[in-house]
């Protein structure tokens, strides 16, 4: 294991050293006093773990391809941007465009997230990206989503309030979103359906929730299938008629 104190160091120098250690075979790196350092874990491949203590900057885990990144704090924009494989665990909140164009792997966020989370997520063959959010989301969740699996638990959301914002799944043409709590038809985009998860979907959901709770060392209340709303596309071309001549 190698430990790096990041305070006062430029993000380029931090990344260069992390990548040097990783390529040299070190598979457990601890970054202390992180404060806005960008691109941590960028394009790293293979199994291993990086512990990040503090607040990482934008594009944490961009192009990640195997490692796990554990954030003991909050995270800024673009967590898991275009990641392929691996896992990112955020103990606090995360901001906008988390999971942008995510193609595989898992992202867990204990708290809340910002806007446009899961935008343009996609699946390919056996690769299915998964995002689980313990708290609430901003607007445009799952915008243009083409594949994958998003779960919003709203653990601290009052029953009368929806844990997701407006324009949910706008332009969505693949994948599924599961929200614990209420979702009004006015909150979702055109061509989007609302339903209760099937038994098979709920079993898959339970599997991810068990892993989420274990990784974050939290106890989840007992959930039933009826507690969740499934959000899904009714068509693969939601805005096709807008461009017809």
Automatic annotation (TrEMBL):
<feature type="domain" description="Glutamate synthase alpha subunit C-terminal">
    <location>
        <begin position="30"/>
        <end position="180"/>
    </location>
</feature>
<dbReference type="GO" id="GO:0016491">
    <property type="term" value="F:oxidoreductase activity"/>
</dbReference>
<dbReference type="Pfam" id="PF01493">
    <property type="entry name" value="GXGXG"/>
</dbReference>
<dbReference type="InterPro" id="IPR002489">
    <property type="entry name" value="Glu_synth_asu_C"/>
</dbReference>
<dbReference type="InterPro" id="IPR036485">
    <property type="entry name" value="Glu_synth_asu_C_sf"/>
</dbReference>
<protein>
    <recommendedName>
        <fullName>Glutamate synthase alpha subunit C-terminal domain-containing protein</fullName>
    </recommendedName>
</protein>
<dbReference type="InterPro" id="IPR012061">
    <property type="entry name" value="Glu_synth_lsu_3"/>
</dbReference>
């Amino acid at each position: 294991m190698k430990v790096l104190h990041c305070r006062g160091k430029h993000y380029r120098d931090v990344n260069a050293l992390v990548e040097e250690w990783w390529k040299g075979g070190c598979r457990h790196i601890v970054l202390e006093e992180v404060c806005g350092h960008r691109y941590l874990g960028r394009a790293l491949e293979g199994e291993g773990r990086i512990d990040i203590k503090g607040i990482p900057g934008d594009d944490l885990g961009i192009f990640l391809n195997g490692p796990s990144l554990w954030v003991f704090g909050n995270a800024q924009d673009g967590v898991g941007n275009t990641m392929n494989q691996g896992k990112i665990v955020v103990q606090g909140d995360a901001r906008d465009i988390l999971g942008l164009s995510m193609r595989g792997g898992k992202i867990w966020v204990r708290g809340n997230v910002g806007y446009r989370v899961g935008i343009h997520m996609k699946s390919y063959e056996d690769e299915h990206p998964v995002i689980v959010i313990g708290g609430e989301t901003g607007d445009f969740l799952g915008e243009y989503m083409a594949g994958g699996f998003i779960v919003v638990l709203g653990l601290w959301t009052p029953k009368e309030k929806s844990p997701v914002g407006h324009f949910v799944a706008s332009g969505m043409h693949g994948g599924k979103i599961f929200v614990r709590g209420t979702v009004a038809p006015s909150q979702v985009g055109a061509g989007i359906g609302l339903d209760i998860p099937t038994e098979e979907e709920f079993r898959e959901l339970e599997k991810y929730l068990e892993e989420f709770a274990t990784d974050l060392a939290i106890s989840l209340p007992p959930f039933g299938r009826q507690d969740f709303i499934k959000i899904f596309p009714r068509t693969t071309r939601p805005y096709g008629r807008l461009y017809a001549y």
